[in-house]
Design goal:
two-stranded antiparallel sheet, alpha/beta
Length: about 190
Amino acid sequence: MLPLCPKCGRPQSSTILCPSCVGWQAEIDGIRSPFRFDGVIRQAIHELKYRNLRAIAGLFAQWLNDYLITNPVPGEVVVPVPLHHKRLRERGYNQSSLLAQELVKLTKLPLIDDCLSRERHSPPQARTATVDERRINVANAFSCRDQRLKGKQVLLIDDVSTSGATLDACAQALKEAGATTVWGLVLAKEI
């Protein structure tokens, strides 16, 4: 297995920060993923996200749990990346919340899915072209409703990470609310 960038989790030849992360002043402590976002995994995630194939969330959570067993990261509570209420109404469910609900059944960690919220509606990250556009798109989009995560190590769950901008924006809101660490765990990472 190749060493990983300690921040974004990208496979590389060493364990030092990759060139993309050297200048990134990120709040997220790290991002980990069992899969690359391509091929069959990409197709399966799209089935969950856009075609209402919710039944696959349990299998995905099993893969995330298997990954955590062999690649542990700090985490004492599980928090899914929230959708804006407008997008939640359109889709009918939050795929990240489904993954988190299934994952906590396996890890026995508590799920806190009503603290972090998306306050600002913005275009889907998939429609942005560059890393800078993605970061601007989600800047200050998230906030915490209360202080329940104060002093906690948060395991932040999402389906995919491309630039890490969404996870980092969530981490900023979580740390402003007192979380001590925030590690992103996603099913697939775009490499």
